[in-house]
Amino acid sequence: MKWLKLCILFSVFFIFFYLRLIPIINQTVPYTYDQGRDFLKAEEIIRDKNLTFIGPTTGIMGVHHGAWWYYFLALLYLVFAGWPVGFYIGLFVLSTTTLFLFFFFIKKELGYQSSWLFFLTITAGSFFIKLGFFASNNTLSPLFVLLLIYSIYLFFKTQSAEYLFFISLALGFSFEFEVASGIFIITSFFITSLFFKLFRKSYLNLRKLVCFISGFIIPIFPRLLFELKNNFIQTKAFISFYSHPTFTNQLSFISTLAERAQLFLKYYLQLIPQENFYLGLLVFLFFIYLLIIRIKNMKRGRTNPLLFFFLLILVIFLVSLVSRNNFFWDYYLDGVQFIILFIFILIFNLNSQLKLAKNILLGVFFFAVLISFSKNLSGKNIPLVGLRADNKIVSYFVEKTSNRYFCLRIYTPPVIPYTYYYLFSYYARHQKIKYPRQEFTNSQCYFIFDKEPYSFRVEKWRKDNIPEKSRLIEKKIIDNGSSIELWKLTES
């Protein structure tokens, strides 16, 4: 039996690391406009010593995410000397460390079985996998939801003021890394907390209130500096946005309700390997059964955290209904998945007498993880996508130009080719290649055309950027649909 447990333990750990590290090793990680822009900003902070107090833009005109995302990238830039893959390795280390710390927290507070329910879920759940290599500011926001869960649970247990500090710290960083997510979760937390006497008393206690408020200062400090320097320009933009909201094809309440219900179902299924609906339904019914047979006999002290997180999910859902635009990005509420999972873990821990039934559920999850993993072991070739694709194109110029000055103009669907700008900047410092110019050099210029579904855009760009008195002398088609062309002027 001991060898069986060790075998299962090794298998799950191997799958956990495999599903996150293979995309990084193969460089098939997402690498788009946002990543290129943010990596360039990190380079600017380190190379030019140009510290910023604001982060990437949000969907609200004039409002930015917090600068902490850029600070994190700048640290990784320093550690890995700007190596593009280094950003993804750093993100993997941070997310994995956070998940394992939470695993040990659950093991200590809620027991061995509950900790394995958490670990099996995060091993193959689609949402949790992407946290290991999706380099975006909104990827870090859910990690602070784990700090929020940890702090709320221990505040109910100990009633210590220090956890109020960590609660507000988590809320503040959640907002700074993803403004939309932060708005929803902060609003929902305050509404939910007012239903609980422990929080109401804390808000009326001066020492605890100061402790709670002070937790917000660290995350929002760079934003405060920016606001003081710029006459509170973002605060005014916030007020303007909420006092004069603009709607794009506003949905009816019923349509919004149906859309959010579908979205929350999606969040739940992201906990299930391969998002299997039938397995998800079976798991849901099992937890309803556990809840029904034990809830009547539970002491209120033990159910308070469960009631809090259940009400928090309900309030987040209701608050999200306020946004009735015809688009509502999934990541606006990322982190909800952790709250849903923790609710199930608390229910799982309610009854200590159903060990066999719980072990059966864990066994079902284990085999579901194995099946999900086996489908990732197909013998297909490594796809030419993400960072791998752009790296291949830039490597072509490393070989072709032999450290000579050359002209390069780039067409990408996002218009500004930040992805290429960053890679050329990195290779110019670490490989034998010059940073490309925009002007024709030796009467020649290379052109990169990324795959574009709307051909008329490419044609218009060609007319604007390729001189009429020039001819195509070389063309290379890349496997991902991009192409490289070399044009030569016919007249000096």
Automatic annotation (TrEMBL):
Keywords: Membrane, Transmembrane, Transmembrane helix. The chain crosses the membrane at residues 71-104, 116-133, 139-156, 206-226, 277-293, 305-323, 329-348, 360-378, 410-428. This is Glycosyltransferase RgtA/B/C/D-like domain-containing protein. It comes from Candidatus Roizmanbacteria bacterium CG11_big_fil_rev_8_21_14_0_20_35_14.
